[in-house]
Specification:
Four Helix Bundle (Hemerythrin (Met), subunit A); 27 helices; alpha+beta; binds adenosine-5'-diphosphate; globular; 12% strand; 729 residues
């Protein structure tokens, strides 16, 4: 009898919503109170320091050292006014989570006393003992130093009792070891490339920023149940578990009313987020039971990424107060929808224009078309790299599983815009446009705004869809740092815009008029990138066949997908845009492989442990009950009657023995494959071995364990069941 499970269920039965008090204040009263933002800066900084830091935020210039001293001491004063005692450099190592090392402000001085101090040096740079963060071979242990350096474009904030300073993380030799450094470089590259292209249309554009609005999906589970599922604790997902009789078939959870306990949790974490200046605004149930989503108003990408990471942390900490655990894993439950993090992406100018929003006049429409077509072309050129940017052991469970976008990259434009591109493609027959053609074209693109208004068909099955005034990259995993895919998207778009400008300038230097040159180049791109456009059902098998015919790749698993990171084409693209050099990108590739291997390795170990320590013992316990029953029956029934009354039990006894034998053998064989994989001499070989040799055992084992769950006495079964975990009150 599993007392642990019984006790946990009793605990769950007693839960009530955990209310907290923020006095029902309006959000605007406390929004950003824990951020060293404009208001705090104005209040605490001298005018000179304020201007200097503003300058560095807007123009990414370096803050002078003497200013840094001032800023640091003001930050400290501000933080202390809010009871803060510690500070940390907050960074995003390639391990995925955010990292922090807290230091106290106080410094001992002579006479056994102490003062509070925070110097410019401590603000600007730190040297964390970082030798155990993944570095893909960049940092040998003898030069194990890594530096964190202040990113003034993302404001410092207070979380708990700590002042957190967003920083980049680089090696002693200057290579980036984090997600943020290349993201910042990609934002710089796209700013430059897009601003140059904007000059064709509007001389007032001097800056272009990439915007990101993410949508975060997650599951909640009661912490009492979580605490006795070792698989959830250690791997973030359930490695066993039979699908419940009532799953999501009825689709009654989606946008249904939010359970009280959950609503209380949401209010609480939203409150904490608003204090931190994270503009979360939307909340609703998701498709699966116990699955939810939250989304903020979009922001500049660097800030949006920081805010997403911070929010994930806030959500986890606040969940514990509400006796929940939040599951960010892409696929916590088999047979139930997984979680993604849609990345809504666009480009905005300093003149307040969204470059992917069609304007009201043909001129602005041409600008829209330029950025629109170039995005399609960029995705076409680097589809495999984009696929690699979202590859992970977790996301493999989700992609192509008839619930999330397939592993095939394609772009959805919607019927109306597809038509516009088709017309544009046909319109220009030869090198030169006739005056009629020009007028016709301008008319066509002049119609775009009206057309788009009723362009409501949203294709949920596309990994990369245009949704009215932005592109939505839907294949990103829920636990991912969206800085990774956003770096790739910005980088490929920057490269694309640079080529576009070159192509247009070349025509203009041959005396082709500007608009016509732009049309001609766009037409060429439309034709070249046509194969990546797909408007149909991305979940269907027909698309797989069609994609194959079109020569688009369909790489279902991570080790294969990662290869695109280090092709000549990808390396050249990153290098040409000044975002990552060969060494850095190759290191990232190594780390991605290693991370993959480690994840599967951990899962495999946990499976073996749970099989040996929990599943088999409880199956045998129940089998013993059956055996006792049969022995008892034998004593009281005649031989002929005995057969009749014991047939079912004996079949069950046999089934348990059979399944236990299969499970045990598979677990032992799996352990052997793991041993072999560990002895391979490259991370690539190891990742493939884990994917192709170790992982297949998971399914055999799980299938048989789940069958056992169905026949073993419910009271004996040691693990909380799906039906218990998925239904929240
Ligand atoms: P949905 O896709 O769920 O129908 P919306 O289209 O309203 O919802 O927006 C979804 C997300 O897109 C939101 O997080 C929003 O902030 C973001 N978004 C809207 N406009 C932009 C933009 N120009 N750039 C980046 N993200 C945007
Ligand atoms: Mg959306």
């Amino acid at each position: 009898m599993s007392t642990r499970r019984v006790l946990a269920m009793q605990e769950v039965g007693k839960r009530t919503p955990v209310e907290f008090s923020h006095n029902n204040q309006q959000v605007s009263k406390y929004y950003g109170a824990n951020v060293f933002g404009l208001d705090a800066m104005r209040e605490f900084l001298s005018e000179e320091a304020f201007n200097s830091i503003q300058n560095s935020m807007n123009k990414a210039t370096i803050v002078e050292r003497k200013m840094a001293d001032q800023v640091a001491s003001c930050m400290k004063a501000w933080a202390q006014s809010k009871g803060v005692t510690h500070f940390t450099h907050w960074f995003q190592p390639l391990s995925g989570a955010t990292a922090e090392k807290h230091d106290g402000f106080f410094e001992p001085i002579e006479g056994g006393r102490a003062i509070e101090r925070f110097s410019g040096n401590a603000l600007v740079q730190q040297e964390p003992d970082a030798s155990s963060f993944p570095n893909g071979g960049i940092r040998n242990t003898f030069e194990a130093r890594g530096y964190t350096a202040w990113d003034p474009t993302s404001p410092a904030f207070i979380w708990g009792e700590t002042l957190c300073i967003p920083t980049i993380f680089i090696s002693y030799t200057g290579e980036s070891l984090d997600f943020k450094t290349p993201l910042l470089k990609s934002l710089h590259a796209i700013d430059k490339a897009a601003t140059d292209v904007c000059q064709y249309f509007d001389k007032n554009v001097t800056k272009v920023i990439a915007t990101l609005g993410w949508e975060q999906e997650y599951f909640l589970v009661d912490s009492a149940l979580y605490n006795i599922r070792f698989d959830l604790q250690q791997t973030g997902r359930t490695l066993f578990g039979h699908a419940p009789a009532k799953g999501q078939q009825l689709e009654d959870h989606y946008w249904g009313s939010i359970p009280e306990r959950v609503a209380a949790y949401m209010r609480d974490f939203e409150y904490e987020s608003h204090l931190l200046g994270i503009p979360v605004r939307t909340r609703h149930n998701e498709v699966a039971p116990a699955q939810f989503e939250c989304a903020p108003v979009f922001e500049e990408t660097n800030l949006a990424v920081d805010h997403n990471l911070l929010l994930m942390d806030v959500m986890e900490k606040v969940a514990i107060r509400h006796n929940f655990r939040v599951l960010m894993h892409e696929k916590p439950y088999a047979g139930v929808n997984g979680s993604g993090k849609h990345n809504n992406w666009s480009l905005a100018t300093n003149t307040g224009k969204n470059l992917l929003s069609p304007g009201k006049t043909p001129k602005t429409n041409l600008q829209f078309l330029t950025f629109f077509v170039n995005t399609v072309k960029a995705v076409y050129e680097h589809a495999d790299l984009l696929r690699a940017s979202i590859a992970s052991a977790n996301n493999d469970h989700r992609l192509g599983a008839n619930e999330a976008p397939p592993a095939i990259m394609s772009v959805f434009l919607g019927e109306q815009l597809s038509k516009v591109l088709d017309e544009l493609e046909k319109a220009i027959h030869s090198g030169k446009m006739s005056p009629e053609e020009k007028t016709a074209l301008k008319m066509n693109i002049g119609r775009i705004p009206d057309i788009l208004l009723d362009n409501t068909d949203r294709n949920r099955t596309s990994p990369f869809a245009f949704t009215g005034n932005k592109f939505e990259f839907r294949a990103v995993g829920s636990s991912a740092n969206c800085g990774g895919p956003m770096t790739v998207l910005n980088a490929i778009m920057a490269e694309q815009l640079v080529s576009f400008k070159k192509d247009v300038d070349a025509l203009m230097s041959k005396k082709v008029e500007k608009d016509e040159a732009i049309f001609q180049v766009l037409k060429k791109y439309i034709i070249e990138s046509k194969r990546i456009r797909f408007e149909g059902n991305g979940y269907g098998d027909a698309w797989k066949a069609e994609a194959k015919k079109r020569g688009l790749s369909n790489i279902p698993t991570t080790p294969g997908a990662l290869e695109a990171m280090i092709t000549k084409k990808s390396l050249a693209m990153f290098e040409s845009q000044g975002i990552l050099n060969h060494r850095e990108q190759e290191a990232r590739y190594e780390i991605s492989l290693e991370t993959y291997t480690k994840k599967i390795q951990i899962e495999s170990r946990i499976i073996a442990d749970m099989v040996d320590n929990q599943i088999i013992p409880s199956a045998l316990t129940y089998q013993k009950v059956l055996i006792d029953n049969v022995t008892g029956l034998k004593n009281i029934f005649s031989t002929t009657d005995f057969k009749k009354v014991s047939d079912t039990q004996i079949a069950l006894i046999r089934e348990i023995s059979d399944r236990v034998a299969i499970i045990k053998k598979a677990a032992d064989d799996m352990t052997e494959e793991r041993r072999k994989a560990n002895n391979l001499d490259s991370s690539k070989k190891q990742a493939h071995a884990y994917c192709e040799k170790v992982k297949p055992f998971f399914e055999t084992i799980r299938y048989n364990v789940d069958k056992l769950e169905n026949i073993v006495d419910d009271a004996t079964w040691p693990l909380p069941k799906y039906r218990e975990m998925l239904y929240l009150r």
